[in-house]
# Entry
Amino acid sequence: FQSHANGVKCFFDFSDSFLPIGLFPRLLCLCVGFSNKFKHKATRRPELYKNFGTVELSPGSIIHLQEEIVSQRIILFAENVERSAKCLFIILSMLRKLNSIVMGEGLEWKVIVETDGGKLLRLDEAQNQ
# Structure
């Protein structure tokens, strides 16, 4: 992610509980499925790897997701600053869906966003500013 000059980064931090094996690939699958609604307008094909993926969720909304097993978190980087909030809430809704369907609501995580100045804040704190 460091090579991208512009964009917004946030973290889904599972360190207080755990990041289940298989959650990240399922999240990537949901992203690709969501992006297929816009496949005729997409400018970029999905790139999928074991612990990393790049998907154009909707035209002009390219995201990068990375799983960090050791730190028990998933990193989201949205290239388009203006559409970053929408991308964040799409991924958040997908995680909630996976939590409901796969984990029986037993999964917990914190959402940490990086501010313009590089400061890390919980999502609820950032929304109140």
Remarks:
- The first strand starts at residue 8 and ends at 13.
- The mean pLDDT is 87.
